[in-house]
Every structure is written in structure tokens, then in C-alpha cells.
UniProtKB/TrEMBL annotation:
Residues 1-25 form the signal peptide. Its main location: other. Keywords: Signal. PANTHER family: D-ALLOSE-BINDING PERIPLASMIC PROTEIN-RELATED. This is ABC transporter substrate-binding protein. The lineage of its organism: Bacteria, Pseudomonadati, Pseudomonadota, Alphaproteobacteria, Hyphomicrobiales. InterPro entries: Peripla_BP_I, SBP_2_dom. Residues 51-306 form the Periplasmic binding protein domain. It holds the Pfam family Peripla_BP_4. It comes from the Bacteria. Belongs to the bacterial solute-binding protein 2 family. It is found in: Cell envelope.
């Protein structure tokens, strides 16, 4: 009896050891895939239904971004991997966006692509989508919660830091500047501003005389800058943290008959053209519109059981006097009030999803 018990214990120890070895031998790709497939549960098989929860569609950047989303969906439809695209427009209202995402949850879409109208207000509904087994890909303006499949973005803090450092270098660390921000409460705008602050703190000779928040559109930015020009006769630089904002600022300077000053921004066609036309000192970077297409591609990859990182960092390019002509050479391919973004393809997407 004692010998029998000893034998059973030996067998149990052997089985436990075998199980541990099997777990250790499990391919890393399988472990990574399980981690990458956060939120995805239940029977979800291609072709998939994708939801695109847009915060607002009026700005040209958003229209171009939606264009990359629909183009990616059409390509995946031809491959038999996507069936439908559900599109909503919250018209800038975060509460409306919450209701629209809830409708997508109720419809049991397979994936939701979202630009958040509020970094905090959407946390509960996004988490609920994740709990219901829906793939959630959040890009550009991010939610606070990590209950998503993946967050895809450039580094907005780095964006603000690099723009501020360029301004410091241009002005020799001394001068009066105006800061132009996007809408308050939108994470991409707030994070750019936060990124600029440590550089400003380290360079006390750079005086921020005032700053403003406007929509990412030329007209309201021009109106805001016009008011600031009347109130501030001496301005040495414009630290603009958005492309349409920069175009609006330069137009305001021109309409008031004032010489333009060093200005930062991004790849808005109108800003780049004014930069070249006026011969200003400028610096810009790019928030690629194809982040939308990449988000759709990532959602389908995750639904297919392939590894997708919880966070995907897209590198920031630099547009300066040495590279601006290469962007303007392609200007006629984009709307006059649009953004000149770089080319993209599946090879680029695969590279970004494996880095």
C-alpha cells in the first residue's frame, strides 16, 4: 500500500513537471497573441463588421482620415475579411459619441475604431465594449483606460517638446511668444501642450504672453490670432501645435500687414504653402491621416488571432527647410485645405505592428 502511494506521488510529480515544461515550451508567438488579443472574446469570424466612431467629421484632417479608413475597409472587403463599416459622427459632442458607441455595442460589431472626444468621459463605454468581446482600437486622441485592444498614435508629448525646442533655438532662448492649442480636453491637444512645458520651464527667457484654444480649422484660428494681434503689438514667435492653426495664424499676420514670425505647425497644405510663399522660418511634423487605416488593419489582425501590440508608437517626421519641398511637390494630390501625408502600405503597417 505504501509502495503504491509512493508510485502515485512519483507519477503526479512527473505529470506536473511535464506540464511545466510544456508551458515553458509554448511558442512566444502564442503567448504574445493571447496578450495582444485583449478584449476579443466569443465566436468572431471573418468577414467582420467594423464600427468607426468619429468625434467630428467637419475638419479636413478628419475627412482625409476617414478616407483612409474607407479605403482600407474596401481593400479588406475584396479579401473577404470585412463585411460592413458602420460610421457615426458625434459632431464634437462626447456624450453623443458615448451613445453612438453604445449603439455599436448593442449591434455587436466585431471591432470599434475610435478617436476620443474626451480622454475620460469615454472610459466606461469603451471598457464595456472590451468586456463584451469587441476589439477596440483607439488612435489619435486617446482614452485614459487601457481596456482596449490597442492604442495607436504618435508621441504627442514629443511633438510639443520638439516644437518648443525649435522655437527656443530660433529665438536664442529669448522673446515673446503666443501658443496656439487645439480644443481643450482633447488628449492629443493637451498632450502636445504638456510636452512643450518642460522646455519652456527650462528657458525662462522665452515669455508666453498668451495662449488660446481653438478648433483644428483655419477660420477660427485666424479669428483667434487676429484678436491676439490687436492686443499684443510685440510677438516674436508663434508656437502653434496644429497645422490648420498655423495657417490661420499666418493669414492673420498677413491681413493685419504685420511681418510673419517663426512659426511651428504640422503638414497642413495651406501652412506649408504659406511658409514657402512668405519665406518664414518654420518647423512642422505630421500626425499621419493613415493612422485610421492602420487602426482598421490592426483590428482585423487581432480578430484573426494575430499579435497586435497594446501600444503602437508611430515615429514623428520632421518637416523643415530641407524637406518642405518634397512635401509641396505632392501638394496637388491633396485638398487645398487638407494635409499632405506620407504614403502607406501593408508592409509599413506590418512593420509598425511588430516593432
Amino acid at each position: 500500500m505504501k509502495a503504491h502511494s509512493t508510485k502515485l506521488r512519483s507519477i503526479a510529480r512527473w505529470l506536473a513537471g511535464t506540464a511545466c515544461l510544456a508551458a515553458l515550451a509554448m511558442p512566444l508567438t502564442a503567448i504574445d497573441a493571447a496578450a495582444a488579443a485583449n478584449c476579443i472574446k466569443g465566436e468572431r469570424k471573418a468577414p467582420y463588421t467594423i464600427g468607426w466612431a468619429n468625434i467630428y467629421s467637419v475638419p479636413t484632417w478628419m475627412k482625409q482620415t476617414e478616407g483612409t479608413i474607407t479605403a482600407q475597409v474596401e481593400a479588406l472587403k475584396k479579401e473577404g475579411r470585412v463585411k460592413d463599416l458602420m460610421v457615426t459622427d458625434a459632431q464634437g459632442n462626447a456624450q453623443t459619441q458615448i451613445q453612438q458607441i453604445q449603439s455599436m455595442i448593442d449591434a455587436n460589431v466585431d471591432a470599434i475604431i475610435v478617436i476620443a472626444g474626451s480622454s475620460s468621459a469615454l472610459d466606461r463605454v469603451v471598457s464595456d465594449a472590451c468586456d463584451k468581446g469587441i476589439a477596440v482600437i483607439n488612435f489619435d486622441s486617446l482614452v485614459n483606460t487601457d481596456k482596449v485592444t490597442s492604442k495607436i498614435n504618435t508621441d504627442s508629448n514629443e511633438w510639443g517638446s520638439k516644437a518648443a525646442q525649435w522655437m527656443v533655438d530660433q529665438l536664442g532662448g529669448k522673446g515673446k511668444i503666443i501658443i496656439m492649442n487645439g480644443p481643450a480636453g482633447v488628449s492629443v491637444s493637451d498632450d502636445r501642450r504638456k510636452g512643450a512645458q518642460p522646455v519652456l520651464d527650462a528657458n525662462k527667457g522665452l515669455e508666453v504672453i498668451t495662449e488660446t484654444n481653438t478648433e483644428y480649422n483655419v477660420a477660427p484660428a485666424q479669428e483667434a490670432m487676429t484678436s491676439l494681434l490687436f492686443a499684443n503689438p510685440e510677438i516674436d514667435g508663434v508656437l502653434s501645435l496644429g497645422g490648420a492653426l498655423s495657417a490661420g495664424a499666418l493669414l492673420a499676420f498677413d491681413r493685419q500687414g504685420r511681418d510673419p514670425v517663426p512659426t511651428t505647425g504640422e503638414n497642413a497644405r495651406q501652412f506649408l504653402e504659406l511658409w514657402k510663399e512668405k519665406g518664414i522660418k518654420g518647423w512642422a511634423t505630421m500626425q499621419p491621416n493613415w493612422l485610421g487605416a492602420l487602426s482598421v488593419y490592426a483590428a482585423v489582425q487581432a480578430l484573426d488571432g494575430k499579435p497586435v501590440p497594446a501600444r503602437v508608437k508611430v515615429p514623428l517626421p520632421v518637416i523643415d527647410d530641407a524637406s518642405i519641398d518634397s512635401y509641396l511637390a505632392r501638394a496637388d494630390k491633396f485638398p487645398a485645405d487638407g494635409y499632405i501625408y506620407s504614403d502607406y502600405d501593408q508592409a509599413l503597417f506590418d512593420k509598425l505592428l511588430t516593432e
